[in-house]
Amino acid sequence: MARLASWCTWYWLRLGVCYLATIFSLGLAHALVSYYKDWETTQRETKKIVFFYCASAVITFVIHIAEHLSFSIIGERLTLRVREQIFRAILRNEIGWFDETSNISSILLSRLETDASLLQLIIVDRSATLLQNMGMIVCSFIIAFILNWRITAVILATYPLIVGGALSEQLFMKGFGGNLRKAYMRASMCAVEGVSNIRTVAAFCSEEKVVGLYARELQVPSRSSFQRGLITGFFYGISQFCLYSSYALSMWYSSVLIDKGLASYEVIIKSYIVLVVTSYAVADALTLAPDITKGNRTAASVFELMDRKTKVACDVGEDISTVRGVIEIKGVEFRYPSRPEVVVFKGFDLRVGAGMSMALIGTSGSGKSTVIALILRFYDPTQGKVLIDGKDIKELRLASLRKHIGLVQQEPVLFATTIYDNILFGKDDATEADVVEASKLANAHSFISALPEGYSTRVGERGVQLSGGQKQRVAIARAIIKNPAILLLDEATSALDAESERVVQRALDKVMEGRTTVVVAHRLSTIRNVDVISVLQGGKIIEQGSHSSLMENHGGAYHNMILLQQNKSTSAY
């Protein structure tokens, strides 16, 4: 109700402004007429008009303060609400949606930034201006018809010319000639990529190349500038010709009416000024049409995003309080939504017992990381089932499922906040003692304590203030603090040097005890102690067993991999 009352108050204030603007034009016409009368009449009428203008000044002062205060409150509330809803809608979508080229991070961030601001501009500002102009038009027509309907009818007949001239003038001042938003967005995407990957750009001395790519994207709007200016200027000239022609016609007809005694000079001047001022209000209203249309498209885009139903439902299903950790993948067929023509799995089966550890190895593209994604339900299989403790994960509430799963990735993702807050992402209600204990299990407490600010140290964007091994141990601590029944390690040590790998591996060995663990690895030396090793090739398990049993199979895939790594031939692994 409060929001509705503020909107109503604001619109009434707008209508008050448009009424005063109409009366102003009428007062101006009355002042001009009064100067052609006797001096006493001129003085008397002038005093009335001055008093009226002073009173109007006070009223408009108060109205504009209230109006802009309401505008600020309504606009900021709308922007905040829309941005929050858009961001919530973005995060609600399944991972496959983010794989689409139209939903890359730079485009989504641009939509988050610009769509809300554009909606504020259109809904709050433009629609109110339109209402104000429409109110001014209605008031002016009523006054003009009361004064003299004949001159009003003729001026209305010339309105298409008057309005056309004023409209093109306004559009010309706005830079009319086409919407280049998409072209500039592509250029912005190029700039964002260059800045976000500045280390790579600097390492390869590619600054000029990136600038060249950015300049190339800007050539499209640049090339169209000459053509747009030529066309706009041509039509602007025509519109001005029509505008002054309509003025001439109105003046000529006014003289005819005065000559025939059908109207007085006073009535003609008042009607003419009121309607000419109104013509600019009509033109101003019409110039808002492209903005209103753009606003409608933006609103449709925003609501399309908000109303989209995710293909991986997250708020429905059974809550699970405890998990033993039995993982089963039965008869799964899977294709990535962004690459539906590529079959990753067909009739794929896998089972990991509770508390057991399994390593997935194989060549790139064999489906190792896909298994991790399916267990986390980043994607749903086309056919088949993924079961946790015998329950299809599609029947479990997503947050309840993921609460019992810890993930450590090859490239740990840290947020630009403190180490403490990054670890706390794993469990919001964790205590400080929980954070410290998780850090100790991850072999991270010693290096964190040695930092000048300890756990309050800010890690920088994507954790750039920490080394690779330090980032990985913070990520492990973040996974540990959840106390997950299932631990997923996606090449958690492949990007580390030998010393960092040794420290991180020792931390992982502690964490894996008593938990169901699925390890994806390229470095086979890190998986010798797991219970079961599964060798994947072409989306199928071609070998399975412990390290010792697989090594006994001379000529087997696993045996060959070990030999290749021992010979330091890593061409495919």
Describe the overall structure:
GO terms for molecular function: ABC-type oligopeptide transporter activity; ATP binding; ATP hydrolysis activity. It comes from Iris pallida (Sweet iris). It holds the Pfam family ABC_tran. The chain is an alpha/beta fold. It has a domain at 1-148: ABC transporter transmembrane region fold, CATH 1.20.1560. Helix content is 62%, strand content 10%. It has helices spanning 2-34, 39-92, 95-98, 105-147, 149-157, 159-174, 181-196, 198-203, 207-259, 265-307, 368-375, 398-402, 419-424, 432-441, 445-450, 468-480, 498-512, 547-551, 557-566; strands at residues 327-334, 345-352, 357-362, 383-388, 391-392, 405-408, 486-490, 516-520, 532-537, 540-545. The strands form two sheets. A six-stranded mixed β-sheet has the order 6-7-8-3-9-10. Helix 4 (105-147) runs antiparallel to helix 10 (265-307), helix 6 (159-174) runs antiparallel to helix 9 and helix 7 runs antiparallel to helix 9 (207-259). The two termini are 64 Å apart. Mean pLDDT is 75; it is low at 1-7, 9-13 and 569-573.
